[in-house]
Amino acid sequence: MLNRSALQQFLRERIPLSTAMAVDVVAAEPDGVTLRAPLEPNINHRDTVFGGSAAAVAILSAWGLLFVRLRDEYPNATVVIQRHAMRHLRPITGAFTASSSLADPGAWDRFVTTYRRRKLARVSVKAFLHCAGEPVGELDAAFVALELNTA
Q: Are the C-beta atoms of 126 and 139 separated by less than 8 Å?
C-alpha cells in the first residue's frame, strides 16, 4: 500500500502545481487522503485563498485517494478527472486542508470489477475543505480510471 511519503514524492515529482502551492500530504489511507496547503502561495488580491487553489487542492486530494487505492493492484491505471463541482462556503483566511472519501463506498467493488473487465471505469469522490476547524468548501467529482496503450 502506498504511504504518505510516497504520495508526497509522487506529487512533487509528477504534479509541479502541488509544489508551487506548497501542498503537503497529511494522510494517505485507502479510506481517505488529506492534504494541507498554506495561505501564502495560494493568496488572492483579498488576502484569502484563491478559489482556483482551493479547487486544485480538493481535486488533488480526491485524485490522490484513487491513486492510493489503485497503485499496488492496478499500476497501469491512469486516473483522470471527468467532471467536478466546487462549492465555496466561505473565504479561506489561512492554511487549509482537503480530505477526500468515496462518495459511495459501496460503489468501489463495481468500479474495480468494471475496470478489471473493460480497463475503463468511473467513480465519484468527495472532498471537504476546512480552515481553522471550520468547513470552507466541498468538491463533488467523477474520475475515470483507464489503461492507456503507450506502445
A: yes
CA atoms of 84 and 117, how far apart (whole Å):
26
Buried b (16+ CB within 10 A) or exposed e, 109-135: eebbebbeeebebbbbbbbbbbbeeee
Q: Beta 120-131 vs 96-102: how paired, if at all?
A: antiparallel
Instruction: Using DSSP, state whether 81 is helix, strand or coil.
Output: strand
Q: Could you tell me the CATH number of the domain that includes residue 58?
A: 3.10.129.10
Query: CB–CB of 143/84 below 8 Å?
Result: no
For residues 35, 37, 43 and 46, what is the CA-based torsion angle, rounded to 10 degrees? 70
Note the pLDDT tens digit of each residue in 33-63: 999 999 999 999 999 999 999 999 999 999 9
Domain total of the chain: 1
The residue segments making up the domain with residue 57 are 4-147
Q: What is the pLDDT of residues 58-117, one digit of tens each?
A: 999 999 999 999 998 999 999 999 999 999 999 999 999 999 999 999 999 999 999 999
